[in-house]
Amino acid sequence: MGYNFGTDFSTMALLDELRNILPPERIKDRLIDRLSYASDAGFYQLIPQVVVLPVNEEEIKSLFRISHLSNIPLVFRTGGSSLSGQAITDGILVDLSRHWEKIKVEPGKGKFVTVQPGITGARVNAILKKWSTKIGPDPSSIGSAMMGGILSNNSSGMCCGVKYNSYHTVKHIRFILPDGKTFDTARAGDYKSFEEECPELYHVLQQLREEVHADSSLLEKIRYKYRTKNTVGYSLNALVDYQHPLDIFAHLLIGAEGTLAFIAEATLDTIPDLPYKSTALLYFRDIFSACSAIEPLIAAGAEMVELMDRASLRSVENMKGMDPAIKTLPEAASALLIEFQEETNEQLDRRVNDFIASCASFALLNPPVFTKDAQQREFYWKVRKGMFPAVGAVRKSGTTVILEDVAFPLAVLGQAILDLQKLFREHQYDNAIIFGHAKDGNIHFVVTQAFDGEAEITRYDKFLRDVVALVVKKYDGTLKAEHGTGRNMAPFVETEWGGEAYRMMKQIKEAADPRNLLNPGVIINEDKEVHIKNLKPLPPVESEVDKCIECGYCEPVCPSRNLTLTPRRRIVARRAMVQLKENRQQDEYKELLKQYQYDGIETCAVDGLCALACPVDINTGDLIKRLRRENHSPIANRIALWVAKNFGLVEKTTRLALSAGTLLNRIAGRNAMYRLTTGIRRLVPAFPLWSRHLGISPSLQPLKQRPASAAGDDAIVYFSACISRLMGNAPVPGGKSVLEAFMNISQKAGIQVITASHPTGHCCGQIFSSKGFQPAYAYTAEKVTRELWELSAHGRYPVVTDVSSCTYTLLQMRTSLAQPLQEMYDKMKIIDSVDYLHDMILPRITVKRKKEEVVLHPVCSLHKMAIDFKFKNIASCFSQKVTIPLQAGCCGMAGDRGFLFPELTASATAPEAAEVKNTHADGYYSSTKTCEIAVSEATGKNYASILYLVDECIN
Fold it and tell me: φ and ψ at 531, to 5 degrees?
């Protein structure tokens, strides 16, 4: 039985209804929430009335009921990486990215996997790696794209082609119709129930299947169109491939972009993840020559063949690590990034050698050079995956980036691309680039476009219509090969498919969603100009913001993603502020500015991991640091500078306070200080919270002066971090301090250690940098540079720091120094304790014992310094098994941020803690004390510095 339908509701009435089914924290109706969710990765924008976060199917059913009762559209969103306007709405936006990430792998061989919509494809593959399998779809955005979007867009990607796309690898689907009825193709009884409970939908699907099979020309057209990639309209091949209406409908949901039902769960067949891979970047004389090599490459067994024109190569030629020779390529040059994959190394070598022997006829500009090196291969694919955002980063401020996705028959691909390039010139898209999955004839082209006036909008409209004519009428190609129809191609679905097929699609939509409230306007839309409406404005804001194209690649690594904002949403909100100010909407501007203080600024960990995930290295943390800097009053800056100048006194005072707190815990119980500071925070929210894993470093004795004058050639400077001096105690009562462990290891390895004459008062400046106190940071940077210059005998000895975040801070301070100090700085070598252990200690020592299993938490700084692999290698020397949780990420501590905003660390560490809590390892290790405190608090395990593991195992 369906729901009772009502008339329009007011916003307050809608919120009242939502509060009856969801708790307040899962109803997001503040201005900052609505505006920051108004954009996805595409170039359209709609502001939702409310954003909701359901946790189970019953809540989904209730949301359907409220949507019908209030006559307000409902749209489901997972990763928000869609490019054609599929994941936005001016109604109710349902965010599935937080509570829908369950996964179950088939026991034994991992031949199939069951997933909910809110888990990323990359995480699914990481879990499947144990079985040497993976999911078939492999979109470029797999690191941020979630399974709900991958299925709903019928994603494919670089390797899977048609054979292993979402449609062909889905095994079972569990879905909820807009009227609340739930069906699961894994349950035999649901086939009969579907007929009995949904007779109208059942018979429409049955009738459409019969019509298709009775119309030989339409039947052949459907078969022809799905031999290549095609995501235009609904998946009409379901009417050909399946008989029972339940199976037909389940497969119509693949590629339906959330317009027919809610996919609650799906089971997919996996494919082998072949262990041996070899990759090469081949340069060709021109793009036609590159296209001529595609079919021979397919015949040679190439698993991946990615095309890149000269303009796309130019967009990445300045990426760190790129071969400088790319800048010297001729203007007409093109490239193919190819990869062979095999079960054995011998098979792989044979494949590659056979190809090299057969490619003499290719118009190559370079001899084929293949690599099996994992890091080099990963770099090649990072270059390819980053082309779309890379163009966005260099576009003119105020313009948007449009990525279109077409496919041509392979036989005409070269000529079709030449015609497409001609259209670029005709419509003055001078910076357009072309790249794509050449093996499938699937071409992506990127243009930058301003939408700041009617002339520009008209230019885009004419260009797109010419593209439609070229693809459909001249080459009988596909307007959308893998990115979904969305709003951008909805007006042209009928153009590609014809009237009869389009009529069937409309019947399917009407039968499944008769009220047209489920993602309306996407795929089926009678407005022939919808592609040029609700266009996303991108006003110039600031350098950090203007580069961003809102692709969302950064979101999965952000520690505040489940608490407040992600880097993308921080940037969207900054753009919204500019728009509100320009529109003179002062009340809304002030409201957004106030909300941004906590959501955008205070709860950003400024860890910089977003820059690693971002294809164009946007560090939203740098933006937040600057905003914090601008927020500081002259008085606040003077106080910070006083602290920097008197850091020794501040350190001693802090030690005294920690000692007092530790004493109180001994007298009144280990939770006494936690309870006391919790109470104080109710009155003074800015007061730091005492962690139950916080303690005082027992002694600074190991830092007694060891001057450089007494050292030989084989020596290092030990720059102990203030956090180690204050809280560098072992995780067990009576244990050694970090300082003692460091000195013990060095002594056993026969390395002399140089230390300062005064054990206190030294600081890397991280606390001032992260908080935006620039004068204090500049002062500290100058002071520590001079100190290290003298300690290191003018750069003769390397400087080792025992906290990774401090090492990273020291490595970044050059730009804050004056020219003479920069010259000193450049002559010094600063390394982390992880470098020290890996490069200098391990070659000198003998492992006396190994632990059975250890668990690691690689801190952000290790990733940013690209030495996380050394961290794991060290642990592997001293343990039979090393575990790094799949969801190990930034803990959100950010120095002291976790003491001031403990909700940030609690949220950031929750996924990792869920993996670690049930482990029973022999040790838990990291390389930054404050991060160790955060993950210890979250997991209930005692995390300690990796120095302890080494010290213990070389005794």
Answer: -70, -15
**Last residue within a domain, chosen from 457, 483, 509:** 483
Neighbours of 341 (CB within 10 A): 20
Domain range for 955: 632-955
Residue 111 has a CB neighbour count (10 Å cut-off) of: 15
What's the pTM? Answer: 0.92
DSSP 8-state class, residue 241: H
Which three-class secondary structure state does DSSP give residue 30?
coil
DSSP 127: H
- What band does 267 get if pLDDT is binned at 50, 70 and 90? very high
CB 348 within 8 A of CB 341: yes
User: Which 3 state secondary structure label does DSSP give 515?
Assistant: coil
**Whether residues 782 and 913 fall in one domain:** yes
Element counts in the chain: helices (H) and strands (E): 43, 24
| Count of domains observed in the chain | 3
Same domain for 368 and 357? yes
238: CB partners within 8 A, 6+ apart: 247, 248, 249, 251, 252, 254
Classify burial at 844, counting beta carbons within 10 Å of its beta carbon; exposed 0-12, middle 13-18, buried 19 or more. middle
Look up the CATH number of the domain holding residue 443.
Answer: 3.40.462.40
What whole-number distance in Å separates Cα of residue 394 and Cα of residue 396? Answer: 7
Classify burial at 858, counting beta carbons within 10 Å of its beta carbon; exposed 0-12, middle 13-18, buried 19 or more.
buried
User: Which amino acid belongs to residue 136?
Assistant: G
> In the block, which residue shows the tokens 């790094």?
884
Flag whether pLDDT at 537 surpasses 70.
yes
Kindly state whether residues 916 and 947 are assigned to the same domain.
Answer: yes
Checking if the pLDDT of 699 tops 50, the result is yes
Q: State the pLDDT at residue 1.
A: 34
Asked if the model's pLDDT at residue 5 lies above 50, the reply is no
| Residue 205: both structure tokens together | 């699907």
Tell whether 725 is covered by a domain. Answer: yes
- Please give the distance of CA 146 from its chain centroid, rounded to a whole number: 10
Positive or negative torsion for Cα 668, 671, 674, 679: negative
Is residue 828 situated within a structural domain?
yes
Residue type, 184: D
Q: Under a CB-based contact definition with an 8 Å cutoff, are residues 509 and 260 in contact?
A: yes
- The answer to whether residues 481 and 442 touch, using CB atoms and an 8 Å cutoff, is yes
Note whether 746 and 891 are same-domain residues.
yes
How far does the chain reach from its first CA to its final CA, in angstroms?
73
